[in-house]
Amino acid sequence: MQIVTAKQYKNEILRVASIQNDTKIDQAVLEIIADVNKNGDAALTAYSAKFDCVNLDHFLVSKEEIDEAEKLVDSLFLTAIQRAKENITQFHEVQKEQSWFMNKEDGILLGQKVTAIEKVGVYIPGGKAAYPSTVLMNVIPAKIAGVESINIVTPPQPDGKVNPHVLAASRIAGADRIFKVGGAQAIAALAYGTESIEKVDKIVGPGNAYVASAKKWVYGDVAIDMIAGPSEICVVADETAKADYVAADLLSQAEHDERATSICITTHQQMAKAIQREIRKQAEHLERQTIIQTSLKQNGRIIIADTLHEAFELVNEIAPEHLQLMIKNPTENISYIRNAGAIFLGNYSPEPLGDYFAGPNHTLPTSGTAAFSSPLGVYDFMKKSSIIHYSKDALQAASNQIITLANTEGLSAHANAIRIRKDDENAPI
After folding, report:
1. Which positions in this protein are listed as binding substrate (predicted)?
2. Binding-site annotation: residue ranges for Zn(2+)
3. Catalytic option among 92, 232, 255, 322
4. Is 309 a catalytic site residue?
5. Tell me: the pLDDT tens digits for 174-228?
6. Pairing status of strand 100-105 against strand 108-116
7. Domains in the chain, ordered, with CATH?
């Protein structure tokens, strides 16, 4: 893992080209979307055979399959996933918004009606690894919001079944249905519906470049949470950090994907060298060594900053998905951080704590979008309607001003809608 200065890093182009600009992926995805939109389940069957190498005569996971899955997972997993559910539920329940109303003055009632989205589709990856934690992070906020129908789509295994840990987590989280469909074709099915899979109002959940591209192209016909890129971590470490902890946390993100980004910013040259040594040492004993080495070579950097202030400014430029402040008095420095998906404080709050257990959502903005985006939450599964009520007298009092504004914009019919009420001597109260 290369050591560079802050100035050198700023001059580098580290990010992999955004999928939005990958015309080959876009073209393939658009063809898949059109095919599924036209041919429904027949297209899904063909793509399952082509991409997943399985021949399926149905896509819905049965109750018996979920029962079997729960018998295949061990009790330690079930205990851990249940406790994680409790933590995630407790955190997200605080996010639920309520409808509200205000009496501005006599005869005027204004407000906002908060309503849950009716139908949601959740994509759960199933390629290089299974992600039962992602099931919890996407389904639980939707349940708390009051979503009536939550459908999961996830790629089948070579045996035509879904990973048992994903199925067990889906039941614990409260998903309504699970379908054995993955890839861009699954996104198309959720967006437009097929004979087996109902059309949803919003699609959430991470996926590969094809899934992300599909979400981009169906957006507008349905809502989406975000277009997720490769995972990222940025650790700010001063002399109080432990080099072996920092190295372990950087490696935990590098194992996700060859395109993952692992960055450490430190103000101490000796700390940088110690972290570099620890990374080499620990990587030798990790299972996903090939992925880790590729990720660190392409996108891993240890950056030397002159001061913590410079480090924080660089963090805000990067706007990382995960930020760890492994520094003295991290809480006192939160105010300097403007752009980060999730912020982990101190030596004993590693990023995997947030991935699995603590409670805040692990679906986070990537690729610099933390500068304007937020983690997935209950608010993503709710929509708002404005409430407006004026009495006859209240409208009369405001009518001349409204007519003036409408005429200024050249919208005489707008003005007429006010005037006809203003001039109606026989108007009901």
Report:
1. 231, 253, 256, 322, 355, 409, 414
2. 253, 256, 355, 414
3. 322
4. no
5. 999 999 999 999 999 999 999 999 999 999 999 999 999 999 999 999 999 999 8
6. antiparallel
7. 2-15+230-359 (3.40.50.1980), 21-224 (3.40.50.1980), 391-429 (no CATH)
